[in-house]
Design a protein that fits this description.
alpha/beta, TIM Barrel, 8 helices, about 20% strand, globular
């Protein structure tokens, strides 16, 4: 069966003065998902965007909005993002006192749910909550800032996560996406896909590719990512 690969540009690297245009342009150029990085200057050392921005961009695109919560605690803010139009909400297991409850909250609010694993966080958290997970997101950098370099050990972790997901899917028939975020570009995306990822967050690699006013300015970088994925 042919693999489905999804490209999810992170708007953290977009031009916020023209955020609606940026999202429209990147989806028109062939991206699949809008990746939304939420940081609280508490769980991670940076402060980014909240539900109001998600609410503002929801009418701009029909694309999936994938919200990655880098905040602690998570339960207070999950309903706000669900109401603001998020399709997928993922969070870090360390940021929840009751992981099963937080995952259930996301799903009860009508969104798909997932867990995010920092480079040194064990995948063991998955073992007893797979029934409530639609996406596993592996961080290939330490979260907090865009533009960091891909951590090579992530490839081994991707292979482990792929085995866990495939075994669960074979047993239950449930589809779970495996996403990777951090330092992904056209030069390494083939190897990342071969290790098991099917969904790829790319921030600076996409939005840093062009600063001109051409609405098709992201065509070449999305095409380059797709060409590299075709080799996987």
């Amino acid at each position: 069966m042919e693999k489905t690969f999804r490209i999810a540009p992170s708007i953290l690297s977009a031009n916020f003065a023209k955020l609606g245009e940026e999202i429209t342009d990147v989806i028109t150029s062939g991206a699949d998902i809008v990746h939304f990085d939420v940081m609280d200057n508490h769980y991670v050392p940076n402060l980014t965007i909240g539900p109001l921005v998600c609410d503002a961009i929801r009418p701009v695109t029909d694309a999936i909005i994938d919200v990655h919560l880098m905040i602690e605690p998570v339960d207070r803010i999950i309903p706000d993002f669900a109401k603001a139009g998020a399709d997928i909400i993922t969070f870090h297991p360390e940021a929840s006192n009751h992981i099963d409850r937080s995952l259930s909250m996301v799903r009860d609010l009508g969104c798909k749910s997932g867990l995010v694993f920092n480079p040194a966080t064990s995948l063991d958290y998955l073992d007893h909550v797979m029934d409530k997970i639609d996406m596993v997101l592996l961080m290939s950098v330490n979260p907090g800032f865009g533009g960091q370099k891909f951590i090579p050990e992530t490839l081994n972790k991707l292979r482990l996560a792929r085995k866990k997901i495939d075994a669960y899917t074979e047993k239950t028939g449930k589809e779970i996406w495996l996403e990777v975020d951090g330092g992904v570009n056209a030069d390494n995306i083939t190897e990342i896909a071969q290790a098991g990822a099917d969904t790829f967050v790319a921030g600076s690699a996409v939005f840093g590719a062009s600063n001109d006013k051409d609405p098709n300015k992201y065509d070449s970088i999305i095409s380059a990512l797709r060409a590299s994925l075709a080799k996987a």
